[in-house]
Every structure is written in structure tokens, then in C-alpha cells.
Design goal:
Elements (H helix, E strand, L loop, with lengths): L1 H38 L5 H7 L2 H18 L6 H13 L4 H15 L5 H12 L3 H15 L7 H14 L5 H19 L5 H12 L7 H15 L1 H6 L7 H22 L1
Helix pairs in contact: 3-5, 3-6, 3-7, 6-8, 7-8, 7-9, 9-10, 10-13, 11-13
């Protein structure tokens, strides 16, 4: 329905009556595409059919795939449960939202969970928004590394996610390296560290090295800030409950950049 409405409005604004008719036709086609994408997800279609909103889809798929990764080692460890629960706490979920997140996590643990179908549906909804697919993958890397170790089973699932999302080669490895740097940065922020250690974490967080020219460091900083800006991500379907995650990432990126600026500025 929303495809037809938005198509008609944009079409009318551009070409008046002919544009309105063309917009209706294009909107009807988009509605059919989204309907097909949502309906093909059999196993957990009851949730998708009830919501059909990109925010709900992002929310559900995030926690379901987290459950799938946590179970990939054969059993869900206490560390994974704590990490998922902590994310729910950070998102300040209501009791209803928390129950939905827990249900999604449990569905993901099922051996028959249709991972490819879930990611195909997710990718269809967020196809134009690479930042959203990358943020989604980052959240999965976070749950995989919550115990400080990336097992071979977890790596296999992450590689499948990267493949199903059709992300450029090397994206997953870069995210893993960056998240490890972010984890180090968070861990050492409150403890006494030498300036050398602080700089090392900052370089890693921005995905650069000491030999990287300052202009390229600024370019990397601007790209990361743009990719993770909360307002931009919300406009592309990030659930409001996940806004705090995006805010924390941009704060860490800003701190790292400010530190390097003192050295290179």
C-alpha cells in the first residue's frame, strides 16, 4: 500500500496527473515485490506478516541471527546469553520488545532456522542501504566475539552472512579487525594506558596505520562517521531502540579521530 501512496505523491509532484498514474503503477509493483519477499520466509513468516515494517524486520533478523550464531558452537554459552541480554538492556527495550527479541533469539537457535531465507528477505528490504547491511553484520560479529574468541563455526556463519548479503570481498575481515579494535578501545578507555597504546587503538578503530597520510585518515574518519550517523541510519530503517548503538559507535570514532588529530594536526 505504501508503495502506491508514495509513488503517486512523488509522481504527481513531478509530472502532475500523468506522473500520478505512473507513480501508482510503479508503487503497485514495489508493493508486490515487498509482499513476495516477506511471504517467502515460511518458518518465521508469522512475525514478518504481522509487522511488515523495515524496523521490525531489522530488529527481528538481528536477534534471530544472533541466536543462530550463538548456537553454532553446539550449545549457547552463558557469555552469549549475557551479551544478548546486555544489548537488550542498552537498547532500553520495553517488556514487550524484550519478549520479541528473546523469541527471535530462540527461533534462531533452531537447527532448521532458514538462515539464507532470512538474509535474502533482509537484503531485499535494505538493498539500497549498504550502511544498514554493514551495521547488521557488525552486530553479528559483536555477538560472535563476545567471549573474545571467534570459533571456526562462528566464522563459517559470518562468512555465509557476508555471502548472502553480497558484501564486497574483504568486508567481513575488515569488520572483524575493526570490532576487535573497538573492543580494545572500550576496554582500555577507563584504565591507565600509555599514549602509544591509545594511538594504536585509535589507528585500528579508524582502519588506518601510522604510515597512512593525514588526508586519508580524514577520509576514513568521514566515511565511518557518515556510515554510522544515527540520524542517517534511522532514516534508512534502523529501529529507534537501536539508536544508542549507533551513538556509541560515532562517539568512539570521534574520540579516536581527535586523538590522532593531536599527532598529525
Amino acid at each position: 500500500m505504501w508503495g502506491k501512496i508514495l509513488g503517486a505523491l512523488f509522481g504527481f509532484a513531478l509530472l502532475k496527473i500523468p506522473g500520478l498514474l505512473l507513480g501508482l503503477l510503479l508503487g503497485h509493483w514495489l508493493d508486490k515485490v515487498y509482499q513476495t519477499a516477506y511471504e517467502k520466509v515460511g518458518y518465521f513468516g508469522h512475525f514478518i506478516q504481522a509487522a511488515k515494517e523495515k524496523e521490525a524486520l531489522f530488529f527481528y533478523t538481528t536477534f534471530a541471527v544472533m541466536g543462530h550464531i550463538a548456537k553454532s558452537n553446539g550449545r549457547v554459552s552463558e557469555v552469549h546469553i549475557v551479551a544478548a541480554t546486555e544489548l537488550m538492556r542498552r537498547l532500553n527495550l520495553s517488556s514487550t520488545e524484550k519478549k520479541k527479541a528473546q523469541d527471535a533469539f530462540s527461533e534462531g537457535k533452531d537447527p532448521d532456522f532458514p538462515l539464507k531465507d532470512a538474509i535474502d528477505t533482509f537484503r531485499t528490504a535494505f538493498l539500497p542501504y549498504r550502511e544498514m547491511t554493514q551495521l547488521f553484520l557488525e552486530l553479528q560479529v559483536q555477538i560472535a566475539l563476545c567471549d573474545g574468541v571467534l570459533s571456526s563455526q562462528e566464522k563459517i556463519v559470518l562468512e555465509k552472512l557476508s555471502q548472502y548479503l553480497k558484501l564486497p570481498q574483504g568486508t567481513l575481515e575488515h569488520i572483524i579487525e575493526r570490532f576487535q579494535a573497538e573492543a580494545n578501545y572500550q576496554r582500555h578507555r577507563s584504565s591507565p594506558q600509555t599514549r602509544k597504546d591509545d594511538l594504536s587503538h585509535a589507528y585500528q578503530l579508524l582502519g588506518v596505520t601510522e604510515s597512512t597520510p593525514w588526508k586519508d585518515i580524514k577520509k576514513s574518519y568521514r566515511r565511518l562517521m557518515s556510515q554510522n550517523h544515527p540520524d542517517k541510519l534511522m532514516g534508512k530503517g534502523l529501529p529507534e531502540s537501536m539508536l544508542e548503538v549507533a551513538k556509541q559507535k560515532t562517539q568512539d570514532i570521534q574520540r579516536a579521530y581527535d586523538l590522532l588529530k593531536e599527532v598529525h594536526g
